[in-house]
Amino acid sequence: MEQFESLLTCCVCLDRYRNPKLLPCQHSFCMEPCMDGLVDYVRRQVKCPECRAEHRIPYQGVQGFPTNVTLQRFLELHAQIAGELPDPTAGQVMERCNVCSEKAYCAPCAHCEKKVCEDCKSAHMEVLRREITRINNQIRRGVNRLQDILVIVERNTSNLQTNCGAVAGEVDEIHKRLSKALKDRTDFLRNEIDRYLATELRNLTHLKDNLELELSNIQSNCDLADKYMNDDVEWEDTELVDTKEIFLKTVEFLRNFDYEGGDYNRRIRFIMTHDPNQLVMHVASYGELNISNPAHSSSYATSLQPSQGLTRSKSDHRLATQFRQQEETKSYYDNDEPILGGRKFGERRPPPPERHTRDYGVTDDYSGYESEHRPSRRFRSRFVRSHQQDNDSDTEQATRSVKSEHKEKEKEKVTDTEDVTRGPLSVQPTHQPPRRPPPARQQSEDDEITRLKRQNKGAATSQEPDRPAPRAAEEERSSITRKPPTPAREASSDGESDESLGTLQRNQRKSAATAPKPVNTTRRPSATETPTAHRVAARAASTESSASTESSGSAVKHTGNERTTPATTNGTVGGAQRVQSRFVGSQRPTPAPAPAEPAQEDSDTSSEEETDSSEESEEEPAPQRKPESQAMARSDIGPLLARSNNARNDAQDNKTKDPPAQPRYRTRPQPAEEETPRYGSSSSSYSNRYGSKPKDEEPTSSLDDDSKYPTARSRYLALKERRNRLARSKSSHSGFGAAEDDDQDEPVSPTTASPSAYLAARYGSGTGGSELSRSRSSHALKSRESSPERPVAGEKDGAALSSWARYLKSKYGSRGKDRDTSGSSSSASRRLSLGLPLRSANELASSDDDSKNAAGSPISPTAATAAVAGFAAAGSSPRSQYLQKRRLQFSLGSRGSEPGYFTWPRGIAVGPDNTMVVADSSNHRVQVFDSNGIFVKEFGQYGSAEGEFDCLAGVAVNRIGQYIIADRYNHRIQVFDPAGRFLRSFGSQGTGDGKFNYPWGITTDALGFIYVCDKENHRVQVFQSDGTFVGKFGSFGSKLGQLEHPHYIAVSNTNRVLVSDSNNHRIQVFDVNGRVLSSFGEEGSEDGQFKFPRGVAVDDQGYIVVADSGNNRIQIFHPDGGFLRAFGSWGSSDGYKFFEVIYNFKHTDPILR
Amino acid sequence: MAALPRRIIKETQRLMQEPVPGISAVPSETNARYFHVLVTGPEDSPFEGGLFKLELFLPEDYPMSAPKVRFITKIYHPNIDRLGRICLDILKDKWSPALQIRTVLLSIQALLSAPNPDDPLANDVAELWKVNESEAIRNAKEWTRRYAMLN
């Protein structure tokens, strides 16, 4: 046995053989380290320790020697017989430690994902310990915030108590006063009665006495007469005459005496000066508790927040999120009801203060969301979070804008803090578009309420009570309408004047509010009616979109219907029908014949609104909404709608050349009349609104979505669903359908029905002012439009403008009208109607809100602004711009390692300040150039430490200017601050979540989420800006949704994620949740085909630029994937040598990769 | 210094547990790579009866390179010089990782019984060994008795 054992022992290590290798001399040795140690590297020989025979080493090294399988079997057998425990190092292979390069038994280190030796591992653990300490410190810092909040909550608690105490005292006081007044009055009345009784009694008694006396006198007279008036008695003539007179008088007296009293009539009556019932009611409801105190609400929110924040934080423990969560939680608290629907109906509280409303809205959204999504895993939860955040941000935005006057500061603070903590993430609302809307609505409602209150305090009471009912907004509206419609308008106008933004918001709110209402008939119907509308809606907010689509599709018709035969729709039924009629009407070419008047009214209202502000004009679109007061409310409903409507109208007017459109506007003049009819139909109108809104609601606030964010996708989805319903609009849609194609959902019917109209629109849009105002619309058009040419001009303008457009609109609302009339705006309107642009605009706006940058295009606010300016200047020639893109602007660098030179530049990105950031891969550094290509700075060097790179690939710059770099061979992502200082890194080699295998392309979206092409893992991973893993999608394969070596990635501002699925020779489009939306391209060299596409970029309008590396060219695609243009060929002369080219369309700078 | 390779530990254990007749090797208390070695002179050799003291050191890359071995006890042998250095092929170019301390010491023991004057290290000794083997053997015995039998 011993000998047997010795046979199993390597004579070099005197240990059991481990991976015995057989030399040609038939002697066996362990491969490592024994055989390894025998190698004579100089002569590439190995000398057998046993026989000293020298053997040439195979090409692959000693592992090229055959394994002594027999010996290995013996080893296994022996192990079985002897029952030995397996050698702990059995199966392990000596490796070079990936850190210190020493040969040793290495174990994987969880920290660096490398196999490292014990020593290095312990060092890494030390690093981890330190990091944990650091994070712990951060947490401690964060805890302070909680403590602060705690303090605030406590303060709020005491405030609440004092406040309630004061109110209770007030109530008591009132009660005292009322009871005293009542008692006094009662006493007074009683005394009066007594006095009256006494007097009358006395009078009657007196009368009675007199009568009795008279009676007795007369009777005695009669007796005397009977007695003496006979012959027995002699009378003198004079006596007789006198007697006769007396008796005649007596007769006369008797005849004439008439007691007026008859039955006793002089009753005293108790007359209430007020209807007792009313009085009782008044008294019974002599006071209400209005919980509108902002401070209160805020305190509330804050108080609520903490607990919830904590609970939430547990799930994903981020301080930053907590903030939002808190807010959410507040809202949560407020609303018991989980979902939007609940919210809508359920806004039960007393008319909440503005804040409250916000909160509510927010909470509802969140709650709905959360309830829906929470169950899901982390991934989802994160997203949910983000959604929530988004919602919050949205709401915040809306609220801000609305309240900007009131509470901007606070909100901003909040946001700021969030930003700080989270960095870019804080602001990320994007993905859950549908849900946001509700908050907006609520807010809008609240705002409206508040306004109304202010304006009509008297009215307020009625409103307030109503509020408790779910639809405060509606009530408000109704109340407004009833009471002083004008005031409402005024208020709206005031609001508008005060803040264009505010108006916008209002409109949005209004729209939102309207939307929420259950009725929704209008919208829905429209949606159902017009599939196209769906599309449109999808782009724009649902409602708006639908409207827009309708308008666009049947813009002419619309105009015709609304304007020329506005009556038809409008006339048919009061408000409700109107609403429908508009939306529907647009869709339906021949709406019901109906009273033109109503339509006119609508138009009037709309026009009025328009006059009030551009925003209002937007509102107009939803004529249904209002009667004037309603108009206000409606305007609330839908800024979006309004926009879309305006857009439509404008577009229609312009495009269709509808003179009629103008008439509309002009017809506005008699608001009062309009109002009245509306009022009359107000109920119906309301219903209409609501009905129309329902659509919105369904989407969960399509309006909100539209207005706020753009998460067009979600909308889209919702819209899609609706589409089916909306069969109607197809006809109208067909033209516009193409534009919508982008969404992919809808078939693009390419060509616009009325190209000429489009062109006109474009051109029209080209003019600066209109463009700005309508930029959104233009956007939509562009994106939608299948024809490349158009898109260029309009799109750019629109895109650039989008964020601004709102602003401008709000400011120069009147312009819109002008445009409408002029027709130049038609394009814009169309676009709006198309609804595409709205999203982007919304997004931008939202981002702006988040970032507080007015210009905030997600990527680079400044850029956006610059772009805007540029566009404005060059607006007239948009069309050609895309085609001109291929012109080389300039090229940078050449091979080398000095600053400004590159060795295999790979990723490129554009920073917020228009700098170009290039991943100089084989120089292991990042270089930054200004927009003119002048070298600015560089950072990074070769290595694996912090701030060092190993063949970095992708670069991205997030909204706050941080550089995010895919450190390819180090399998990690590094984040640098705008100065190029290392901030953090995350990821390591592996296949698990948050691990990478050669990460390549990287990008961020408006919310700061980081998307990484994990190339060798054939997937895309999504992280929060702090590196927290959020999700992943894609797996190896060539089916839809699968990836093979994804190289680069881009996110459009409609939140579509484009991935260059390089080895599948295609571009795939996902939504932010990783669902594949579409893909295009196949292997080949024709237009629209690829060979190993690499770089991919998307511009504001959704145009997709693909670096077709195998074909040495750049291709440009429509947002729907339709081929637009290709340029470039192999060579180095023109700067296209590297074909991972990305255009920055905003700036029209082509960037080479 | 890095941890002691398993092979050295194993060799040491085996030397202690199964000592080779006529040879003892004990690691130094302060350095596990340094061995105090005692070798008895082989029978039928001029060194019979002698107890020779050697030192053995295992270099860093042992077993890939040969151990360093040196006679501390003076010995009259053509392949061992006055400083105790040993001329033995397996300690030089013929070293093989398959060899061990035990085999090295056995080889040295064998060298004592079979001097090889044709490959001398101590030239004078080798010369005498070749010219007058009997006298050389006598000298060897003398030296053995004088230096290797004191204790």
From TrEMBL, chain A:
Residues 599-621 have a biased composition (Acidic residues). Keywords: Metal-binding, Repeat, Zinc, Zinc-finger. InterPro entries: 6-blade_b-propeller_TolB-like, NHL_repeat, TRIM-NHL_E3_ligases, Znf_RING, Znf_RING/FYVE/PHD. Pfam families: NHL. Residues 313-333, 344-361, 402-421, 464-479, 782-798 have a biased composition (Basic and acidic residues). Residues 431-440 have a biased composition (Pro residues). GO terms for molecular function: ubiquitin protein ligase activity; zinc ion binding. Residues 538-556, 678-691, 822-833 have a biased composition (Low complexity). GO terms for biological process: proteasome-mediated ubiquitin-dependent protein catabolic process; protein polyubiquitination. Residues 375-385, 722-731 have a biased composition (Basic residues). This is RING-type domain-containing protein.
TrEMBL record, chain B:
InterPro entries: Ub_conjugating_enzyme, UBC, UBQ-conjugating_AS, UBQ-conjugating_enzyme/RWD. Residues 3-149 form the UBC core domain. The active site is at C87 (glycyl thioester intermediate). GO terms for cellular component: UBC13-MMS2 complex. CDD domains: UBCc_UBE2N. SMART domains: UBCc (SM00212). Belongs to the ubiquitin-conjugating enzyme family. It comes from the Eukaryota. Keywords: ATP-binding, Nucleotide-binding, Transferase, Ubl conjugation pathway. GO terms for molecular function: ATP binding; transferase activity. This is UBC core domain-containing protein. The keyword Transferase applies. GO terms for biological process: protein ubiquitination.
